[in-house]
Write a structure and sequence with these properties.
The complex is a heterodimer of chains A (about 170) and B (about 350). Chain A is an all-alpha fold and about 170 residues long. Chain A is built from 3 helices and no strands. The relative contact order of chain A is 0.05. Chain B has about 350 residues and is of the alpha/beta class. Chain B has 2 domains: about 170 residues, Rossmann fold; about 180 residues, Glycogen Phosphorylase B (Rossmann fold, 3-Layer(aba) Sandwich), CATH 3.40.50.2000. Chain B contains 13 helices and 13 strands. Chain B has a 7-stranded parallel beta sheet with strand order 3-2-1-4-5-6-7. Chain B has a 6-stranded parallel beta sheet with strand order 10-9-8-11-12-13, sandwiched between helices. Chain B is globular. Classes of the chains: A mainly alpha (about 170), B alpha/beta (about 350). At the A-B interface, helix 1 and helix 2 of A face helix 1, helix 5, strand 7, helix 6 and helix 7 of B.
Chain lengths: ~170, ~350
């Protein structure tokens, strides 16, 4: 990649060292000069990819792949499935369980954190309560809105045309 | 002294934009210009590296330049639009919101806002800087009058690169946040096909956070269970640089099934560890990879598994891909980045004092 305008591109010659250093960022790592790099015969990557693709297509045609594998690879991916409803995180907890697995220091750390938490609770707890109140208020409005939209959608759902019913409005004549 | 400042919604230490912002500031200062970073939010570790975004308006004169890093919608876009100085956009691309609508509507909303910001700001700036020609194309479509492609600077030293192991049980790696556009689910399917096709001990490691995509991460775990590869898929979450380096060093093939990448920093990381790369030919990936990897257009996990299997078994192919990767890495060197920044300054008429 090199400097270029949006319209065109002119490659610049390779620079002198790897992009591993910057001024004042410590000693350079693994200096590499272009001359140090072997001029190896170019492997034909495109051909290799073509061969693999062909092998796979042939394998699929001839049924070489186990059906359970093919079925497993087709398992749909739905990251939005199983999302918690917003109500699950509406209530803000200002105090969380404190634990430590470290033998001796752990107990001291937990004790220290408890003390700090207790000292700051006069400041933190009201904020958490205010935030919870706001979250719940928003959710209440949101659910009311959801209910209203559902009702409107239900009432405007297309129904089967009745014989002899009112005539449909016509577009204006050209 | 003429100044060239940068405005970024969030300045974080670990992400590509945070790295780019700080490296650009260093390059501007090396060129003898005054340069500061302004941000709306600054990570705790970078306090002192940036000034509050709200101060920017009062700090710039009509001849100064401000570059806005655009990758998602943010209130800072409005602040940028109102500046009375010379302006440019550094465009890192905006993931199409459709990928996030089902699992992360909040992110989807900000991505849509980002597209609206792009449409509004691109025609109004003096210059656009794009990470790739792919991104440049989008900037051009949005009406940006002049565009330069400057691949982002990459600080690979933080990962302590060393040659990855080439023997032992095959281990596939893809380092990126877990997100629907990254298509990690395809990699899980590919692993299942690979294990069924003769590489029974193959494993897959997917380091990356899922702060805004928890349902997606849960879906990946569920899919791995359904395909019977739950034990072979590791989701270690967001990792330290040291841990990422260790994971690369313990891998045998870097795979990337992303459907949308504005550049593909992880490709450079893989090359730094002498890993062969097999990637989907989508978005900016083909131009970043060049000939230094196997690019696939197929969606068939069996084809992917077959190709990965060849790369694992064929020593000559593997060596050639590794060498091409090392060669390709040269195109993204720090020296090349500095040269491109000098070109940018020249184009803006901000010649470094030493250059006359």
């Amino acid at each position: 990649m090199s400097d270029q305008s949006a319209a065109g591109a002119d490659r610049q010659p390779p620079a002198e060292t790897t992009g591993a250093t910057r001024a004042g960022a410590g000693p350079p790592i693994r200096q590499v000069d272009a001359a140090d790099i072997d001029a190896s015969p170019a492997p034909d990557v495109e051909r290799m990819v073509g061969e693999v693709t062909e092998e796979v297509e042939r394998g699929r045609r001839e049924g070489s792949y186990p059906a359970p594998l093919l079925a497993a690879l087709e398992v749909p991916f739905h990251p939005d499935e199983g999302l918690e409803p917003p109500e699950a995180s509406a209530v803000v907890q200002s105090a969380r369980p404190l634990r430590s697995t470290r033998p001796v220091v752990g107990e001291l750390t937990v004790f220290g954190k408890r003390v700090v938490r207790r000292l700051l609770s006069w400041y933190v707890a009201p904020i958490a309560r205010d935030q919870t109140r706001f979250n719940l208020a928003i959710l209440r409005e949101l659910r009311a809105l959801e209910e209203r939209v559902t009702r409107i959608e239900g009432s405007s759902a297309p129904s089967a045309p009745e014989q002899g019913g009112p005539e449909r409005p016509r577009p204006p004549a050209p | 002294m003429t100044a060239i400042h940068q405005l970024v919604p969030v300045l974080s230490p670990g992400d590509a934009i945070g790295q780019a912002v700080r490296r650009m500031r260093a390059a501007f200062r090396e060129a003898g210009l005054s340069s500061e970073v302004f941000a709306d939010q600054v990570h705790q570790r970078l306090q002192g590296e940036a000034r509050p975004a709200a101060e920017l308006g009062a700090r710039v004169g009509p001849g100064d330049v401000v570059l806005y890093h655009l990758s998602i919608g943010a209130p800072t876009a409005r602040l940028f639009a109102e500046l009375g100085c010379r302006r440019g956009i550094v465009y890192h691309n905006i993931t199409p919101s459709a990928y996030y609508r089902a699992t992360s509507p909040r992110v989807a909303g900000w991505l849509d806002q980002g597209r609206r910001d792009l449409a509004r700001l691109a025609p109004a700036v003096e210059i656009g800087v794009a990470d790739s020609a792919y991104n440049a194309g989008e900037l051009g479509e949005a009406g940006c009058p002049a565009i330069m492609v400057i691949p982002p600077p990459v600080d690979l030293a933080r990962l302590d690169p060393r040659p990855a192991r080439a023997t032992g049980a095959p281990r596939l790696i893809f380092v990126s946040r877990l997100a629907p556009n990254k298509r990690q689910e395809d990699l899980v399917r590919i692993l299942a096909a690979l294990r069924a096709g003769g590489q029974a001990s193959a494993t897959l490691v997917l380091p990356g956070g899922w702060d805004d995509t928890e349902p997606y991460a849960a879906g990946l775990r569920r899919l791995a269970r359904e395909l019977g590869v739950a034990e072979a898929v590791e989701l270690p979450g967001r990792c330290s640089d040291r841990r990422i380096g260790d994971l690369y060093a313990g891998a045998s093939v870097a795979v990337c099934a992303s459907a949308h990448e504005g550049f593909g920093m992880h490709l450079l990381e893989a090359w730094a560890f002498d890993l062969p790369v097999v990637a989907r030919a989508a978005a900016a990936v083909p131009e970043t990879v060049g000939d230094a990897g196997v690019l696939l257009r197929s969606d068939d996990p069996l084809v992917w598994a077959g190709v990965v299997d060849r790369v694992i078994r064929d020593g000559e192919l593997r060596r050639a891909l590794v060498e091409r990767g090392r060669r390709r890495l040269l195109d993204f060197s720090d020296a090349a980045f500095t040269r491109r920044i000098r070109d940018l300054l020249e184009r803006l008429g901000l010649r470094p004092p030493s250059a006359g």
